[in-house]
């Protein structure tokens, strides 16, 4: 009865208002010589840490903005326990630190009770202060020498303190079976 040729019709909509198209302003990112040098040094440090201490998984995560970082951080196993390493801070010092938050201060205090054993292991270079265990030294003239010393210290710290940063609240006997060389 009805003669409809196409029952479905598409409507065309026209508007006098044009959509706003976002245009990105491309900023030239300039990297100065100091940032490029810092990036290369930090990459070399990470590469050396990964090759020498391959079993410590936090080293295998990529770090962003290596050219801007003076201090690189890594998780130490338990939340609010972190390692920090720097090839060259503002005072021209290289360091490795293990920092504990206030909620983990009892772990720090347990390690501090064994300060004489820790000092013996690290040739008296360890400093205990404000929930932080650190080894600091003047940056050496050669970056490779500084990196080697930092990696040696880092490896000793991981071996010495992993029982505390991973297994502290577990049964003490179980804690020592994982890292027998710990403090």
Features:
5 helices; alpha+beta; elongated; 5 strands; 5-stranded antiparallel sheet; 183 residues
Brief sketch in words of this structure:
The protein has 183 residues and is α+β, with helices and mostly antiparallel strands. It has five helices and five strands.
Describe the structure.
- It is a single chain.
- The protein is α+β, with helices and mostly antiparallel strands and 183 residues long.
- It has helices spanning 33-52, 105-112, 115-121, 143-167, 172-178, and strands at 72-75, 81-86, 93-100, 126-129, 132-138.
- The longest helix has 25 residues, at 143-167.
- The mean pLDDT is 81.
Structural class: alpha+beta
Figure out the total of helices: 5
Biggest sheet overview: 5 strands, antiparallel
Low-confidence stretches: none
Percent of residues in beta strands: 15-25%
How many strands in all?
5
Determine the mean pLDDT. 81
Give the proportion of residues in helices.
25-40%
Instruction: Tell me the distance between the termini.
Output: 96 Å
Numbering strands along the chain, what is their spatial order in the largest sheet? 1-2-3-5-4
Helix-strand topology string: HEEEHHEEHH
**Overall shape:** elongated
Q: Gyration radius, to the nearest Å?
A: 27 Å
């Amino acid at each position: 009865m009805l003669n409809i040729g196409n029952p479905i019709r598409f409507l065309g909509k026209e508007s006098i208002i044009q959509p706003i198209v976002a245009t990105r302003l491309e900023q030239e990112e300039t990297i100065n010589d100091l940032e490029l040098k810092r990036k290369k040094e930090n990459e070399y440090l990470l590469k050396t840490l990964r090759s020498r201490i391959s079993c410590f998984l936090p080293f295998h995560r990529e770090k962003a903005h290596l050219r801007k970082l003076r201090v690189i951080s890594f998780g130490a196993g338990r939340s609010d326990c972190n390692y920090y390493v720097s090839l060259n801070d503002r005072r021209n010092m290289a360091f490795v630190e293990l920092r504990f938050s206030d909620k983990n201060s009892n772990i720090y205090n347990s390690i501090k009770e064994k300060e004489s054993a820790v000092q013996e292991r690290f040739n008296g270079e360890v400093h205990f202060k404000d929930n932080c265990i650190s080894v600091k030294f003047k940056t050496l003239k050669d970056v490779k020498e500084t990196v080697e010393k930092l990696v040696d210290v880092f490896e000793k710290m991981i071996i010495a303190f992993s029982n505390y940063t991973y297994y502290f609240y577990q049964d003490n006997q179980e804690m020592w079976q994982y890292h027998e060389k710990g403090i």
